[in-house]
TrEMBL record, chain A:
Protein name, UniProt field: Allophanate hydrolase
Key words of the record: ATP-binding, Hydrolase, Nucleotide-binding
Superkingdom field: Bacteria
Coiled coil region boundaries: none
Signal peptide (UniProt feature, chain positions): none
Pfam families per record: CT_A_B
TrEMBL record, chain B:
Keywords: ATP-binding, Hydrolase, Nucleotide-binding
Carboxyltransferase domain boundaries: 12-213
Entry-linked InterPro entries: CT_C_D, Cyclophilin-like_dom_sf, PxpB
Stored SMART domains: AHS1
PANTHER family, sorted: 5-OXOPROLINASE SUBUNIT B (PTHR34698:SF2)
Record-given protein name: Allophanate hydrolase
Length: 283, 250
């Protein structure tokens, strides 16, 4: 078991996502930063879509009651195992009674904690991803216990990745969205030359941007949206939908982030800067 | 109707929606004919495309979203869509499923019913009659799991959203807002005028098919008393309630 001594700011169980129900209005959910998740799961040699903890900004305090192997990835939250600093993308053995704590946020926003073979979590519609409208538990709370199978021995093929993430990068690679053609020359010029700032309204559903473009009065009939869809409101605001974002919307969908841009954005927080760069379309 | 006529009458535009999705668009109209073409194309494509793809039909768009990892050829997919669409014999059949959804309009639930009736210059009964006589079409599902976008609200029932949205609207609340009527599938903030409550859950994760209706189905509301409402709730709790369905073959 993993005992939650302190909950931290916002920690949820996530996996690769809940697919196949978008036509019934169910967002895919799943980890915000697929790249960090895949590396952590890869090092632990876990199957794809293994449940993991997504730890946002301020980490919890956790006690392991069984031996296993863990790996952290994504944001650097100054993790300490029994008061000794540990690094991301490295496999550590933990024993019964070991304590994992987090401290200062150094880089990124979302840190991933994986255990060998994953956490045993509530499965709803084929996914362990916590999402308030569907799952009983919504986030980690003080006093919670998470189950995992004890693992005594594991010889990882690779025990550490040396490459460090660059979350300071500001450029998000995007493709044209279905309503890209509605943009005026003026709006286009701003969209691709301005530096945008992430507003305080940013969460697993969507990231709003602080700077406005010149507004418009075009609405569209409700149509599908995806994680990474950039919506453009009549007031000129840009809203980037994320993993828990609604599956349809009525605002023009002007851009679509590339998957790696979604992963990068997931590591950005209030006041961080970004710029859009249109990809060379290769379709 | 000949095959070539179809595509002439209902032209489509196909465009990429990022690297992982492709979208088919008809003219920007709320139209039964477009929705029907949309659903018939969906059905035809589902037979040709593997289940790494999700299909989302909504009004005049059909969006195909890819969950797989292999690369796919956008060009080949466009060709397939064109071919399947051109080969479709668009039927004019009016056969569809209609769900009869019970609604208790008692003011215990219909907290804005009086005010809405006043605003519209109707009696409460007239409002309820108009709301239950109309047959609505599900043009889309989204916003929340199991939230229906319904078309077909009588113009006489169009009322603006409330100036200040409520922080919490109850699960099952039936609302009116401009050209829309619908049911909140779960408690959420909302600005619609609440005229009743539907005891039937619209999204139930414990069922293998968590959401019994689909885009293209019809919906009609049926006025029920408070005791009938309570009765259906009990039937729900013990798991014996099945939503009432009729197949229309007009």
């Amino acid at each position: 078991m993993l005992k939650v001594i302190k909950a931290g700011f916002y920690t949820t169980i996530q996996d690769a996502g809940r697919f196949g129900y978008r036509n019934k209005g169910v967002p895919i959910s799943g980890v915000m930063d697929n790249e960090a998740y895949n590396k952590v799961n890869g090092l632990l040699e876990n199957p794809t879509s293994t449940p993991i903890l997504e730890i946002t900004m301020m980490g919890p305090e956790l006690v392991f009651t069984q031996p296993t192997f863990i790996c952290l990835g994504g944001a650097d939250l100054s993790a300490q195992l029994n008061k000794v600093s540990i690094t991301n993308y490295k496999i550590y053995k933990v024993n019964a009674g070991d304590t994992l704590r987090f401290g200062k946020l150094n880089t990124g926003l979302r840190c991933y904690l994986g255990v060998k073979n994953g956490f045993n979590a509530e499965i709803v519609l084929n996914s362990a991803s916590q999402y308030a409208p569907l799952t009983m538990a919504v986030k980690l709370e003080k006093g919670d216990v998470l189950n995992y199978g004890a693992v005594n021995s594991f010889q990882p093929k690779i025990s550490e990745l040396k490459a460090k993430e660059n979350y300071a990068k500001e450029t998000l690679l995007v493709d044209r969205g279905p309503e890209f053609h509605l943009l005026t020359d003026n709006q286009l010029a701003h969209l691709f030359s301005k530096q945008f700032t992430i507003a305080k309204e940013n969460n697993r559903m969507a990231y709003q941007l602080h700077e406005l473009l010149v507004g418009h009065n075009t609405s569209i009939l409700t149509a599908a949206t995806q994680p990474g869809t950039v919506q453009f409101t009549p007031a000129g605001r840009l809203i980037i939908l994320m993993k828990d974002g609604q599956t349809t919307g009525g605002y023009p969908r002007i851009l679509q982030l590339r998957p790696e841009a979604i992963a990068l954005l997931a590591q950005k927080k209030h006041q961080d800067k970004l710029q859009f760069k249109l990809a060379d379309t290769v379709f | 109707m000949s095959k070539s006529d179809n595509s002439k009458h209902l032209p489509i535009r196909i465009q990429p929606f990022g690297q992982k999705a492709i979208e088919i668009t008809w003219k920007e109209d709320v139209s039964e004919q477009i929705l029907s073409a949309n659903l018939q194309l969906t059905k035809a494509l589902k037979k040709k495309i593997n289940n790494d793809w999700e299909f989302i039909s909504s009004y005049n768009t059909l969006t195909l979203i890819y969950n797989g990892v292999e690369l796919f050829s956008y060009k080949e997919l466009v060709e397939l869509i064109r071919k399947e669409y051109n080969n479709l014999v668009l039927t004019t059949s009016k056969r569809h499923v209609k769900w009869i959804l019970p609604v208790c309009y008692d003011e215990v639930y219909g907290i804005d019913l009086s005010e809405a009736a006043n605003f519209l210059g109707l009696s409460k009964n007239e409002l309820i009659n108009l709301h239950t006589e109309a047959v609505y079409t599900i043009y889309g599902i989204g916003f929340l799991p199991g939230f229906m976008y319904l078309g077909g609200l009588p113009q006489i029932l169009e009322i603006p959203r409330k100036p200040v949205p409520r922080l919490k609207v109850e699960k099952g609340a039936v609302g009116l807002a401009s050209k829309q009527t619908g049911i909140y599938p779960q408690a959420s903030p909302g600005g619609w005028n609440i005229i009743g409550n539907c005891p039937v859950p619209l999204f139930n994760v414990s069922k293998s098919n968590p959401c019994f209706f689909s885009v293209g189905d019809k919906v009609q509301f049926k006025s029920i008393s408070q005791s009938e409402y309570e009765h259906i709730k009990i039937q729900m709790d013990v798991g014996i309630y099945e939503p009432e369905k009729v197949v229309i073959d007009a």
